[in-house]
Amino acid sequence: MLSLKGEHIRLRALETDDLDFLYELENNVTVWEISGTTTPYSRHVLKQYLDNAHRDIYDVKQLRLCICDKNDKGIGLIDLFDFDPKNHRAGIGIIVLEDKNRNKGVGTEAIRLMMDYAFSTLALRQLFANVLVGNDASIHLFKKLGFQEVGIKKDWIFSNGRYKDEILFQKLKT
Question: What is the residue range of the signal peptide feature (predicted)?
Answer without folding.
Answer: none
